[in-house]
Amino acid sequence: MNQQSTGAFPPSPPPEQIVFHRSELSVIMSLYGRMVAAGEWRDYGLSHLCEMAVFSVFRRTAENPLYRIEKRPKLRNRQGQYSVVGMDGQILKRGNDLKTVLRVLERKLIRAVE
Questions:
Q1: Which of 24, 78, 102, 107 has the maximal Cβ count within 10 Å?
Q2: Around Cβ 70, how many Cβ atoms within 10 Å?
Q3: Can you spell out the DSSP letters for 66-87?
Q4: Nearest to 70 by CA among 84, 90, 88
């Protein structure tokens, strides 16, 4: 059986996904590499959804994410499109400059040397 379009309703385009750009991923992966080298992080996950893109960071694979780095372009003119969300859902930092927002996580690398 052939299905033919009746022409009454044009096919709707697939929903557009929000994704991280290569330059954004470069900044995130640079931080991720340093945290892996320090032994803090071990795994990550990427999600590209209709309203946001999420980079989740895990200490162990089977756990809930330690942090989520979210990109929500709709918030660009309000609080800022990038945010870092903690394990408990609390927003740790948000803004429009990704490097500035990620500084909240870089503080975890600074440790006192005895």
A1: 102
A2: 23
A3: SEEEEE-GGGTTTT-SEEEEET
A4: 84
Per-residue model confidence (pLDDT) at position 83: 92
CA distance linking residue 26 with residue 20, whole number of Å: 10
Q: Are the C-beta atoms of 64 and 10 separated by less than 8 Å?
A: no
In contact, 73 and 80? CB cutoff 8 Å: no
Predicted pLDDT of residue 88: 87
pLDDT block averages, 10 residues each, the chain of length 114: 62 73 91 88 88 88 84 84 89 90 79 51
Nearest to 69 by CA among 34, 99, 113, 114: 99
- pLDDT for res 112: 45
Q: Is 43 helix (H, G, I), strand (E, B) or coil?
A: strand
